[in-house]
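tl;dr need the bound structure. longer version: we got a ligand (zinc ion) that a collaborator sent over and nobodys looked at where it sits. i said id run it. heres the input, straight from their email, havent touched it
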Amino acid sequence: VNSEKIRIRGPGFCYDVHVGRGLIGHVGQLARATVRGNQAAVITDSNVPRQLVDEAVASLAAADLQVTKIIVPAGENSKSFRAVERVCGEMPALDRTSVVVGIGGGVVGDLSGFVAAIFHRGIPHMQIPTTLLAMVDSAIGGKTGVNLATGKNLVGAVHHPSLVIADMEVLTTLPERELRQGMVEIVKHAIIRDAEMFALLSTSSLDFARDDKLIARNIRIKAAIVSSDDRDISGERALLNFGHTIGHGIERASDFRIPHGECVSLGIVAACQISIKHAGLPINQRDQVIDLLQKIGLPTRLQGGIARDRVLQAIARDKKFENGAVRFVVTPSIGQAYLSREVTMKDLENALAAL
Ligand SMILES: NC(=O)c1ccc[n+]([C@@H]2O[C@H](COP(=O)([O-])OP(=O)(O)OC[C@H]3O[C@@H](n4cnc5c(N)ncnc54)[C@H](O)[C@@H]3O)[C@@H](O)[C@H]2O)c1
Ligand SMILES: [Zn+2]
């Protein structure tokens, strides 16, 4: 085993994230440090490689945990109340000393975390993220929840995990397109917080998604932001929305046909455009962002018959406008970001027109 431990601490929570290789075979041992009881529910989905899940279950069993394995269908539809009800119903042996273990991507993380948040009014949650996005983004920060027919992530709870285990080896089976979903959030982290990482990404070869050091670096960035503002109060956490206002608009205008990461890639390009006007971002830095996204294989031009006015309508419905302006994250220079209150609908329209 070759791993690094990152401690995440904030008001009312403290937990470790283990990042490394060969950790799956040791999850039982690691779990024992935080779990009091002898029952565990493993929640995973039908696309997570069976071998990976079996290895984790065997390790938990070897640490004297009785495991109930629950497999939900892969896909966003499993982030639903129906799934929550089914999963809770399959955990009769669990009590407050038990642990819920999510093994999978963000869908499994959000569902299992929400189940842990509400089962017996809250029991410990362990995250074993198996997608790049889950490792660098969704497994960190404590946001859990499910979707409603009226919108995504509308119901949920802040429930921090008690342990996160990110084993890079599981990424070898992850399809390229799924890897890119995580890379977008890495580029986002670089733009809002880490100019040096941006330079590194821009000049290095593209296997960086399987680079332990880089994943640990991104976990630290997200951890630092959410630790200081885990309930979205100071506005610090809002910086993580960089590229997401327009990204979400595109996602909805495409009826969720375009994956989140690709929409956010477009949203990042548009946010850079707006940052030129409102934050003084140098034009050549916008171009560096576009080059990096293209190098990764992410879209930087709006195509595929997405109507720009539908995107604008989706944003208008979603966002509160105060005096004609929307809270919008801008970057004055790669590595920095802040919340501007000067961005108007017209700015969004112009940025979309240029996309
Ligand atoms: N809670 C948060 O803070 C937060 C942040 C960002 C995103 N999210 C949520 O995360 C979800 C998206 O997560 P995602 O991109 O990980 O998608 P996902 O969970 O749907 O996983 C993508 C696909 O990859 C499969 N898979 C997972 N691990 C694999 C592996 N090692 N090898 C092969 N296949 C594997 C999954 O079964 C699934 O089919 C969304 O619901 C989003 O709302 C939550
Ligand atoms: Zn995102």
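gonna send this back to them w/ a short note. The chain has a mean pLDDT of 95.
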